[in-house]
Amino acid sequence: MIREVENKMKKHYKHKDILFPVPAALIVTGDIEHANIVTVAWIGIMGSDPEVIGISLKHDRYSLNSIEKYGEFTVNIPSSSLFRQVDYCGLTSGKVVDKFSETGFSKGKSIVVNTPIIEECPLNLECKVIKAIDIGQWKIFVGEIVETQLDADCIDINEKVDINKIDPLVYIPTIREYWSIGTILGKAFDAGRCIKGNHARKLK
Ligand SMILES: Cc1cc2nc3c(=O)[nH]c(=O)nc-3n(C[C@H](O)[C@H](O)[C@H](O)COP(=O)(O)O)c2cc1C
């Protein structure tokens, strides 16, 4: 049964491709000599075991040819303070500029793949392409995450991630703004247990 909530009205919205929030991630392609950086917001973890990530690139991106050539890429999650460099990597093309030298980012060593990581980004995922799917003007690359590096000072003594130290940059599509994350609200897989009924799964 449809139920209307008092004083609440839904409206058609002109954009369909909205999801809040999304990261603004930096993808590095190529080897150490030919490394390029591209900013992407169309990105997400697609599964665990194996750990896979999907990124979507428009066909005219310089980085797209580079991923196809090398079959690998790194995903670098910037802290919010890096938003200007992130924006720059989304405004310029590797066809005409060397984004590492222009932004001052340092090429760091990956453990498994040949494509470098961005040293200044606290979280780095090393990925090997396992699938590529053409959808209209876009190409989705599905990458297996073969290694992960995290700044040592972002891991606490209990091996937990310190999200305040990572301070990941957040992108808000349609209004095109950069934000930082807010405050902790509760624990996942737990906060919902207070809602009536006792059908919640027990955690392993
Ligand atoms: C915040 C932001 C998010 C972006 N997200 C994507 C994306 O998900 N996919 C994409 O193809 N381009 C995206 N872009 C645009 C590319 O980063 C941009 O076209 C870039 O100049 C391409 O660089 P390249 O030619 O060196 O590959 C984004 C740009 C910005 C600023």
Automatic annotation (TrEMBL):
Does the keyword field hold Secreted? no
Alphabetically ordered keywords of this record: Flavoprotein
Q: What is this protein called?
A: Flavin reductase family protein
In the record, the note on similarity to other proteins reads: Belongs to the flavoredoxin family.
Where would I find the Flavin reductase like domain in this sequence?
A: 20-156
* InterPro entries, per database record: Flavin_Rdtase-like_dom (IPR002563), Flavoredoxin (IPR052174), Split_barrel_FMN-bd (IPR012349)
Pfam families in alphabetical order: Flavin_Reduct
The scientific name of the source species is Anaerovorax odorimutans
